[in-house]
Amino acid sequence: MAREKKHRSRGRRSPLAAAALIGAGLLLTGGAYAGASAAMASTTDAQTSATAELTVEDGEKLFTANCATCHGLDMQGTSEGPSLVGVGELSVEFQLATGRMPLQMQGPQAPQKQPQFTDAQIRAMAAYVQSVAPGPNYPQDWVTAGEENPDNANDEVDIAHGAELFRINCAMCHNVAAAGGALTEGKYAPALTSTSPLHIYAAMVTGPQNMPVFGDMNLSTEDKRDIIAALVYQQEAVQIGGFTLGSLGPVSEGLFIWIFGIGALVALTVWITAKSN
Does the annotation place 7 within a ligand binding site? Predict the structure, then answer.
């Protein structure tokens, strides 16, 4: 009997231990809830700031903090960056939205990378530059949407005409399949296989880096619209010929034949010789 009571007394839990377990459970639950609430709040704030409309004054603050070091507070340029007088909002949107600016490092060409600003911040900075140094602005919706000009009753979208204009004016640098190509001194023409209609138009109008400016005397707005429509059609088209091999023409095709075609023949010859021996 004494041993049985002793074992029972050892098996009982202290009331303090139960209270400690309950307290620990409440602390863990409360901590997890607080962490989840903070994460949801920060995500909501980030989404709100990304979609909220910013003013020109906000754009000025962003420009002063991120761009004035190289381009100057008055946008006249410095030894580290060119003047922005006359570039307009379209050029600012193109450079920031494609991640080319802020410049990562000095080199032959600014590479495209992940943008560092939200769409609202980019629009605000573009509006500020446009207010101080006006230049090319955003196109009308029908231009980037590939639609007829509502002010011209005789206008029609012509993808074939746009493809012809691209071959004449752009293919020598960007490749006939818009796959891009190498230029001199480490420069290159980027591929246009995933470029948005707005940025295609911006590149034609503003002439970033090595690209010439195509004014209305060279290509009318309707011509630019047709080129955009042709490129968008090419982006969405299914490659019925199979593998494109980078769409680089005989260079990639010849390399494929030499490496895989002739390589397979050599391997087959070695196998037949070893088999016969």
Answer: no
Annotated ligand binding at 174? The verdict is yes
Cα distances (angstroms) measured from residue 170 to each of 13, 53, 165: 83, 36, 8
Task: Report whether 161 belongs to an annotated binding site.
Answer: no
For residue 261, what is the enclosing H or E element? Answer: none
232, with CB counted inside 10 A (0-12, 13-18, 19+), is: buried
Alpha-carbon gap, residue 220 to 201, rounded angstroms: 12
Task: Give the chain's domains with CATH numbers.
Answer: 56-132 (1.10.760.10), 141-236 (1.10.760.10)
- Please tell me the distance from the alpha carbon of residue 220 to that of residue 214, in angstroms, as a whole number: 9
70 is in an annotated binding site: yes
Mean pLDDT within 210-215: 92
Q: What is the pLDDT of residues 63-82, one digit of tens each?
A: 999 999 999 999 999 988 89
